[in-house]
DNA sequence: TACATTTGACCGAT
DNA sequence: ATCGGTCAAATGTA
């Protein structure tokens, strides 16, 4: 997860970053040791709660390693970074190799398609934002899924979404969602492409009328209603079990905005608390170097 | 019935 | 030939 924003500090030298990565890996190993110890807790409730916490810590540490590795690239995340991160997660889980693409089934339906122009791929499309989240749908926008693909060396498939207003208002916004791991809740890498042009027509406060009165100028309401729920495993579980829509209000700062507000967390309150605990953990184990 | 999702086929890049 | 990204018919859901 975004331990620190880029603008908060100058980019560390490569060897220093490698040292940080190594420390994070040690932390992940320690977390695994701790997990094994927690397995011995007799009380089921306490054991499960502790295991869940350790699982989240492991996830955060692994994600941090992935992000630091990704930082070698030009931007915070790219699709290839996501692939690398997924590969790391897959390796940790004994990941299998995909044969690439969805399995081909011999032509029950023979479709002849002439070459057609592909939307949005005229010119180079660079990701504008990368987010690691457990709730990939919660950005206040309406998305429509248009594809899913097994990615080489990735355990989980990548889902492709475009803005729900891409047709009506030619909004070019797209995003890729790729599950990172199988923790509870699972983490996802969301890579955003192109800014929403529909956002001027449908400001966040107006996209979900039922909550517009409670949303402030600096917040937006997360959309758990059907329109925004994807087929991601964790989300589908939510959809089935909860039935009715669920709304949560969170700050609506973008990743880039957060980068300029050095101390603002790009995390849910729970994640932020966890990160503070991890920092405290490393503070004690590394002699408190600042 | 309308709309969203699923999924095999297709396409361009490598 | 392989891969990631997209299309669009088939299917699911309310």
UniProtKB/TrEMBL annotation:
It is found in: Nucleus. Gene3D superfamilies: WRKY domain. InterPro entries: WRKY_dom, WRKY_dom_sf, WRKY_plant. Residues 138-201 form the WRKY domain. The keyword Transcription regulation applies. This is WRKY domain-containing protein. PANTHER family: WRKY TRANSCRIPTION FACTOR 21-RELATED. PROSITE patterns: WRKY. It comes from the Eukaryota. Signal peptide: none annotated. One of its GO terms (biological process) is regulation of DNA-templated transcription. Coiled coil: none annotated. Transmembrane segments: none annotated. GO terms for molecular function: DNA-binding transcription factor activity; transcription cis-regulatory region binding. Keywords: DNA-binding, Nucleus, Transcription, Transcription regulation. Pfam families: WRKY. The keyword Cell membrane does not apply. GO terms for cellular component: nucleus. It comes from Hordeum vulgare subsp. vulgare (Domesticated barley). SUPFAM superfamilies: WRKY DNA-binding domain.
């Amino acid at each position: 997860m975004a331990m620190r924003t880029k603008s908060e500090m100058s980019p560390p030298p490569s060897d220093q970053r490698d040292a940080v990565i190594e420390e994070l890996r040690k932390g992940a190993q320690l977390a695994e040791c701790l997990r094994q110890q927690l397995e011995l807790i007799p009380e089921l409730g306490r054991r499960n709660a502790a295991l869940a916490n350790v699982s989240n810590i492991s996830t955060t540490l692994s994600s941090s390693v992935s992000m630091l590795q990704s930082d070698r690239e030009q931007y915070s995340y790219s699709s290839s970074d996501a692939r690398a991160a997924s590969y790391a997660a897959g390796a940790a889980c004994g990941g299998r190799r995909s044969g690439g693409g969805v399995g081909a089934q011999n032509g029950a339906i023979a479709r002849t398609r002439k070459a057609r122009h592909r939307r949005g791929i005229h010119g180079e499309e660079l990701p504008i934002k990368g987010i690691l989240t457990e709730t990939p749908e919660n950005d206040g926008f309406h998305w429509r899924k248009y594809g899913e693909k097994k990615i080489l060396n990735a355990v989980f498939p990548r889902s492709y979404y475009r803005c729900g207003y891409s047709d009506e208002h030619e909004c070019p916004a797209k995003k890729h969602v790729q599950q990172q791991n199988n923790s509870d809740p699972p983490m996802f890498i969301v890579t955003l492409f192109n800014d929403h042009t529909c956002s001027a027509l449908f400001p966040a406060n107006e996209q979900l009328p039922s909550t517009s009165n409670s949303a402030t100028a600096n917040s937006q309401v997360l959309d758990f209603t059907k329109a925004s729920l994807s087929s991601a495993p964790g989300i589908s579980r939510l959809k089935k079990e909860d039935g009715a829509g669920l709304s949560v209000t969170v700050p609506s700062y973008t990743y880039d905005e957060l980068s300029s507000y050095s101390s603002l967390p790009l995390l849910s309150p729970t994640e932020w608390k966890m990160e503070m605990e991890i920092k405290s953990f490393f503070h004690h184990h590394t002699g408190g170097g600042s």
